[in-house]
Design goal:
Largest sheet: 4 strands, antiparallel
Number of strands: 4
Order of helices and strands: HEEHHEEH
Low-confidence stretches: none
Radius of gyration: 17 Å
Strand content: 5-15%
Mean pLDDT: 88
Helix content: 55-70%
Structural class: alpha+beta
Shape: globular
Number of helices: 4
C-alpha cells in the first residue's frame, strides 16, 4: 500500500463525485422542467434525460430495478477501491480515482432519483451522441488514463 497514491486516488474520487452531484442538483433544479432542452451552440445543448438503463440507455425499456444497478456499480467501485489500495503509481491512482468517483456519482443518482440524470448533448446536425453527465466524463477520463498508463508502463522483456 502506498498512502500518498491512495490519498490522491480517494481525493480525486471524492472531487469527481462532489462535482458531479453538485452540477446534477443544479441541472435537475433548473433544466428539469425545460422541454426539449436549451441550445447552447450549434453542436451542444443542455437537455434533461433520465437514463433508467445502463451505458447509453442500453436496457432502458426493460431496465432492472435501480437498486440492483446501484448495487452492481457500488460493487465495481469497491473492487476499484481495493485495486487503488494496492497501487503505488500516481497516474494509476488518478485513473482509478476518476473511475470510482464517476461510478459513485451514477450510483447516487439511482438511489436519489431512480435513474441517472444525463444532460450534456453533443450533436452534428440531426445526429446526436447519447446524452451524458460529469460522472460519465470522469469514467471516460479514468479509462483513458488507465490506457495511457498501460502503454507507458510496459514491462521489460527478459533477455
Amino acid at each position: 500500500m502506498n498512502p500518498p497514491a491512495l490519498r490522491l486516488g480517494l481525493g480525486i474520487a471524492a472531487a469527481a463525485l462532489a462535482l458531479d452531484q453538485i452540477v446534477k442538483t443544479m441541472v435537475v433544479a433548473y433544466f428539469g422542467g425545460v422541454p426539449g432542452g436549451i441550445e447552447i451552440t450549434s453542436f451542444f445543448n443542455f437537455v434533461m434525460v433520465w437514463n433508467r438503463g445502463v451505458s447509453f440507455g442500453i436496457l432502458g425499456r426493460v431496465a432492472p430495478p435501480p437498486w440492483l444497478l446501484a448495487a452492481v456499480a457500488g460493487g465495481v467501485a469497491i473492487g476499484l477501491a481495493i485495486w487503488l489500495a494496492r497501487v503505488a503509481e500516481r497516474r494509476l491512482a488518478v485513473g482509478i480515482g476518476l473511475l470510482i468517483g464517476g461510478a459513485l456519482g451514477n450510483v447516487a443518482d439511482r438511489l436519489r432519483f431512480g435513474a441517472v440524470a444525463d444532460f450534456l448533448d453533443f450533436h452534428w446536425g440531426a445526429r446526436h451522441w447519447p446524452a451524458f453527465n460529469l460522472a460519465d466524463v470522469a469514467i471516460t477520463l479514468g479509462v483513458a488514463v488507465l490506457i495511457i498508463d498501460s502503454l507507458l508502463n510496459r514491462p521489460e522483456k527478459p533477455n
